[in-house]
UniProtKB/TrEMBL annotation:
A single BP term in Gene Ontology: methylation
Gene3D superfamilies: Vaccinia Virus protein VP39
Entry protein name: Histamine N-methyltransferase
Molecular function GO terms recorded: methyltransferase activity
Length: 290
């Protein structure tokens, strides 16, 4: 299959940001996550954090690959219900995403009262190399493990950055995820480590004897319009799903046809009325350090 002409989405951060935005909107990502935070997160993370802070001490939080911060802010608001002072360090390499995160934090000044943000425009690898010795009460890595140079050693590093009694939350695709099946069928579309799933994280933790709990979250993405030649915005969604720049314009027609057919197949998606819903289930792996 000739896919040499396809440019990786990871090589164009600005196109990535646009495509990711469409993906988030179509998957109702924030609403699903907010409900999850109100339920599972408040009990399994906030309720389990063994942090006894005196009135002056801040809860130290590290967000890795936080993007434009929507999910982080939802978690911070939940943490704030129990901890009045929070120091929120953010390690995110994209300046564009950080600009949006800063604007959101500004907009949410009232909800985030008592939260001090410390933005670092860095990859996790650069942050680790810089050798900061701060230990954290809570670390989150939401859908970013795919992009790290070596998720396995990064996970060990993050575990070492945690104080005893602290918690790590890693969210990534489930192994039954239809989008992952799609990438398994077309390995030429794999960019970075986008095929990594929660199973890889569990294996990594099992190997080290680190206990964890996993929470499964069903989620569907309406991809119906991706099959409509005239829907412009959905070509950005196709770009995100294929992790390619301008897939519809640059991929050979036969390649497009077989890829899109497989995306709509029951291996990856289900049909509800006239809608094609791609399975984008995710798992949250919660580690509480003993
Ligand atoms: C799919 S987005 C997830 C953003 C956000 N956590 C969310 O779920 O909406 C992946 C994020 O990981 C960031 N990223 C990529 N490589 C990274 C690295 N080496 N270290 C830290 N973050 C990275 C990207 O810039 C991007 O913001």
């Amino acid at each position: 299959m000739d896919t040499k002409s396809l440019q990786s989405l990871l090589s164009d951060p600005s196109h990535y940001a646009k495509a990711f935005k469409v993906f988030c909107a179509r998957s109702d990502k924030l609403r699903v996550f907010s409900d999850w935070v109100d339920g599972v997160f408040s009990e399994a993370v906030v309720g389990k954090l063994q942090a006894t802070l005196d009135g002056q001490e801040e809860l130290r939080v590290l967000g890795v690959g936080s993007g434009s911060g929507e999910q982080d802010c939802v978690m911070l608001e939940q943490l704030k219900k129990r901890f009045s002072l929070v120091n929120n360090r953010v390690v995110e390499p994209s300046d564009k995403m950080l600009v949006q995160y800063k604007a959101l934090a500004q907009y949410k000044t009232h909800e985030l009262q008592g939260v001090e943000c410390d933005f670092r425009q860095q990859t996790l690898e650069q942050y680790q190399k810089a050798g900061d010795a701060t230990k954290f009460h809570f670390i989150s890595a939401v859908h970013c493990m795919y992009y790290l140079d070596d998720y396995d050693s990064s996970l060990e590093y993050l575990y070492n950055c945690l104080i005893p009694g602290g918690a790590i939350l890693v969210i990534l695709k489930s192994e039954n995820n239809g989008w992952n099946r799609f990438l398994d069928r077309f390995p030429e579309l794999r960019r970075g480590g986008c095929e990594i799933t929660s199973a890889d994280i569990r294996n990594s933790l099992d190997r080290r004897g680190i206990p964890y709990t996993q929470y499964h979250q069903p989620n569907g993405l309406d991809v119906t319009k991706c099959f409509d030649e005239t829907a412009d915005e959905d070509s950005l969604l196709v770009d995100f799903l294929t992790h390619s720049v301008n897939f519809k314009e640059t991929a050979p027609e036969d390649v497009q046809r077989s890829m899109m057919e497989y995306l709509a197949s029951s291996d990856c998606s289900k049909r509800e009325n006239n809608t094609i819903l791609l399975n984008i289930d995710w798992d949250a792996v919660v580690i509480i350090k003993q």
